[in-house]
Structures are given as C-alpha cells and as structure tokens.
Amino acid sequence: MLNSLSGRFLILTAIFVMLAEILIFVPSIARFREDYLLTRLERSQIASLVLLADEEVTPDLQEELLRNAEVFNVVLLRDDARQLILSSPVPEPVAQTFDLRDAPAITLIRDAMMRLVTPDRQIIRVIGEPVRMGGMLIEITLDSSGLRAAMIDYGLRILWLSLVISIFTAVLLFLAVRVTLVKPIKRVVAAMQTYAAAPEDVRRVLRPTARVKELREAEETLQSLQTQLTGALKQKEHLAQLGGAVAKVNHDLRNILTSAQLFTDRIETSEDPTVKRLAPKLINALTRAVHLCEATLAYGKAEEPGPVFARLYLADVVADVIDSERLAAGDADVSFAEDVPGDLVVLADAEQLYRIIGNLVRNARQAIVNSGRPGEISVMADEDAAEWMIRVADTGPGLPRRAREHLFKPFQGGTTKGGSGLGLTIAAELVRGHGGTLILERSDATGTAFCITLPKGNFGATS
C-alpha cells in the first residue's frame, strides 16, 4: 500500500496539508493571545467604571471586580494623570510589559510563541487603549499562566481540526488520484502484459481511452510502438516464408539458368554481327543470374556473402549496367549518360558493385517510365585521396514521401507503386559490406540523386 503511487500520494497530501495548517496556526495563536489580552483590558475598564461612578466601593467589591477581570490592578491615564483605580497585592515582581497599541504582527507572533513555549508562571503588565473614549491609556497587571493554558487549549482544538481536515482532504485526493491516474496506469500496464503474451495479435494493440492529456499521449505512443512491432513481426514472418519459398525454387532455377548458359555457347558461333555484339552481354547476364540464385538462399537467411575485393575498371561495370537498362527501357523516352573516367580503378566486388549500381539505375528508370515524361539518368564518378564517390542521379519525379521516410527498409521503402523496396535495401547492405555508405543526397520535383562512397583503406591489401 505505502509503496504504491496512491499510497505515497496519500501520505504526501496529509503532510502538506499539515504544513499548511501550521502556517495558519502561528498567526492564529498570536491573534488569540491578542484577543485574550484585549478582553482583559475591556473587563478591567468596565470594573474601573464602577469605581469611578461610586467612590464608596467596599474592598470586598473591589476584590470581586478584580477577580472577575482576572487582573491584579488597573491603572487609567485620564486628563494627563495616571490613576490607580483598582489594586490588589501582586505576588511577584512584573517580569514583562507588553504594549498592544499599534503592535506589529511580527511582534505579536514572537510574543505569542515565547509565551507558548515558556511554562514558568510570570506576572506581566499589559498596556492598551481604552474603548469608547474611556481615557488615554489603560494598564493592567495579570498572571500569564491562565493565558498560556487558554492558548494551549485553543492550539489543541486547531490541531484536531487540522488533522480532520488533512485526513478528509487526503482521502478525497487519494480517491481522485486512483480514478484519474492509478486506474488508467494499471489499465495500460495490463494492456502491455496482454500484448506481450501474443504481440502478433493485432487485436491486443492498446486502444487509447484516457481523458487526461498526458496519459492520452502515453497511450497513443504505446499504441504506435505496438503497431510498429506487430508489423515488424509480421514482416519477419513473411521474410521467413519467403526464405522457405526461395529454398524450394533455388535449385531448379539455377539448373534452368545453367542450361540457358549452354545454349548461349552455340549462339557465340553465329556470324550475325548483332548476335556477336550482344552474345557476350547475354552470357554475362546469365552468369550474374546464376550467381545471384546461388546467393539468394544465403541472403534469405541474412547471410549475404562478404565481398571478394579485386581491382576493376569502374567504367566497365557502369557500361554493363547502362547497356542492360537501355535494353530494358525499350521505346521509353529515357536517356542515359556516363561520366566515369576510363582509367578509374576501384577496389570492390565486381558482382556486388554491379548489383549496387544496377538497383539504383533500375529504380530511376522505373520512376521515369511510370511518370510518363521523358527523363535522363546519369552515373558519375570521382575520387580523392581517401575514397571513391559514385553518384546516380535522374530527372524523374522524386521519391514519394513514404519512401523517403522508410528509406532502405525492406517492404516499406518502395520507390514505385507495387515495389517492395528490396532494391535499395540490398544496395545499402552491399555498400556497408564494402565499408562504405549509401546516402540520398536530394529528392524533389527536379529529380533524385544517390551517392555511393567506397573507402580506399584496403586498396593496397589486394593485388
């Protein structure tokens, strides 16, 4: 109970209410002391009026008047003369004198606290102003023990009242906190526990119902996280199923492509100039397809083989990519441009570099064709002392907003309608395998540009 949020809130509320009551108690007890002394002054003035009206007052009557006023003597200042109106023996010397005329609040509070904490009996003198023009000054002498007893009694009554108020207030706040905070928090915790038992079940995703703004925001954030996690788990399941399907077709597809390679050997003997020119490209394409099939199963298991580094002319790889995409473009109004120095040698895996550049160029071609407008795709390369830079740019319509938000995420960052987004995911992973980076430099209505950066750190390690 005490370790719960509502229990601690209950205790803190009671403590704070008591502190507030203490702040109220101090000026209240000072006010009570002042009223007590003023009452004694008024009673003393009334008793003195009896003596002034009849000078033949007996000693017994004087004693009774002083006893009713609870004072030892009364002095009035009238017509600039001090008059001892009523008097009786004072048991002890006067210890303190208090002047209530225009006394500041801090002085009244200080005197009250001192009287409250001093248990010793004291004879005190009190000076005040008479009421109803009863003179210029009235002065009385009294025993302060009665004052202290009255103050303690008053303080205890305030204490009990404060205790009741604090408990009542704390209980109300306790109930309010349970209804407005604790129960909604417990509901969120229960929803999290239910969701954790079966995160794939979309029915267990939390539905925000809180009316408190902060709790509502927490529930909406949790709902978003649960929705994303459920989607990620489903995506993981789809990838696992895809891996199983790839495993089934990989063997047969590789055999079919191998057979196609055998047929191309006979095509090479053709005397047709066009066939002679295109046959090597067909053979290279089939070879890449066979290698890709062999690597597909490993990729489906998240075991993409590492790159086999070798020195190669970048212009040759780019030329193969451009030739393949130019054939794929067909009659579409897409032009290609290359700005790659012929003597630029890079250290990379030839097959993987082809896939990297090919995926970027293919995405650009598909975006331009789908837009229905003419466009150009350019591949540029440069180098400095530390790295090689390869830029693939186009004049297409730019990436959709969803693609920019989920760039390089499979099944989320597709750049074309119906696309899976795997092309950019594969390209980014292969670039990372080379120790480089693939970034989106720009994407707007004027086109899109990606930059591949490959480090030169391993250039001297391979011959």
Automatic annotation (TrEMBL):
Q: What keywords appear on the UniProt entry?
A: Kinase, Membrane, Phosphoprotein, Transferase, Transmembrane, Transmembrane helix
In Gene Ontology terms, what is one molecular function of this protein?
A: phosphorelay sensor kinase activity
The record's section on SUPFAM superfamilies has: ATPase domain of HSP90 chaperone/DNA topoisomerase II/histidine kinase, Homodimeric domain of signal transducing histidine kinase
Cellular compartment(s): Membrane
List each copy of the Histidine kinase domain by range: 248-458
Reaction it catalyzes = ATP + protein L-histidine = ADP + protein N-phospho-L-histidine
Per the UniProt record, one Pfam family is HATPase_c
Q: What is its EC number?
A: 2.7.13.3
User: Which top-level group of life is the source organism from?
Assistant: Bacteria
Q: Per the UniProt record, which residue ranges are transmembrane?
A: 6-30, 158-177
Q: What class of enzyme is it?
A: transferase
User: Which Gene Ontology cellular component annotation is one that this UniProt entry carries?
Assistant: membrane
Methyltransferase among the record's keywords? no
Main location per UniProt? membrane
| PANTHER family referenced in this protein's UniProt entry, alphabetically | SENSOR HISTIDINE KINASE TRCS, SENSOR HISTIDINE KINASE YKOH
Task: Please identify the protein, giving its name as recorded.
Answer: histidine kinase
Lineage of the source organism? Answer: Bacteria, Pseudomonadati, Pseudomonadota, Alphaproteobacteria, Rhodobacterales
